[in-house]
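Q: I have 129 residues here and want to know how they pack in 3D. Can you give me a structure?
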Amino acid sequence: MLNDPLAAALTKIINAERVGKREVVIRPTSKMIKAVLRIMNENNYLGTFEELPEGLNGVLKVNLLGNINKCGVIKPRFSVKKSEFEKWEKRYLPAKDFGLILISTPNGIMTHTEAKDKNTGGKLLVYCY
């Protein structure tokens, strides 16, 4: 039994990227994992992904582009105010405007730059660069 399916999915992705694979199969899936993968796809860190109807929880087949240097889950899921993004960027990203931090906000999961633009805070989920 997995304690954190999102962390397991990101670990599978980063391990497959390091080995040089072109695709990886992720199971189990959830709405949060799909939302994180969708945002990573929009920001050109991942290729397309499709859901395969296998088993109870489903399976995702993700195409890899080789653009991820490092990604991971932020634990514990720190709360962040709209004025504190720079502190967390310095902690989790290697340089300014390089990489992204995904945040769970009342408006859904979004990147830290979108949250700055919409002037909202939330909980830190994932970093990726």
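Q: Anything worth noting?
A: The chain has a mean pLDDT of 93. The chain has four helices and eight strands.
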